[in-house]
Amino acid sequence: MGRRSGSDGLASSGWIELRPYEGLYCVSCEAYYTEEDLIDGSLCPIHQRPVEWLKEDNYFFKLSEFADRLLDWYEKFPGAVTPESKRNEAVGLIRGGLRDSRLRSQSNVSGLESAISLRHSTAKA
Fold first, then answer.
1. What does the pLDDT look like over 77-103, one tens digit per residue?
2. CA triplet 43, 48, 57: central angle to 5 degrees?
3. From CA 57, how far away is CA 29, in angstroms rounded?
4. Residue 34 DSSP class
5. What is the Cα–Cα distance from 91 to 110, expressed in whole angstroms?
6. What distance in Å separates the CA atoms of residue 23 and residue 17, rounded to the nearest whole number?
7. Domains of the chain
8. Which of 3, 34, 93, 117 has the greatest number of CB atoms lying within 10 Å of its CB?
9. φ and ψ at 43, to 5 degrees?
10. Model's pTM, two decimal places?
11. pLDDT value for 65
């Protein structure tokens, strides 16, 4: 058996999910922005061109499912992060709520997408 890549492990873990994502998108940047990031609420801060509302399927890492595990780890290993103020900052961020992280749109081809797509296609077979 060969060594599996990190994306293969994530793909088989169930921690990555394909779901719709929508927001303000700059075609030139190929990036999403919040309204607060934009100039006058409608222009890309880099290209100073109007953004558009885009909805597409994206892969998400389910970071929100790790909050309890992370808090348990910080409690079990209090000296692992120093100084204590940085540990407290991290714990505070986790307690404030972790959001799932958007990895890639379905239209972008990557090794991660290939591993996930392969897992989904073989699971259906």
1. 999 999 999 999 999 999 999 999 988
2. 55
3. 18
4. -
5. 33
6. 18
7. 1-62+100-125 (2.170.220), 63-99 (2.170.220.10)
8. 117
9. -110, 140
10. 0.64
11. 94
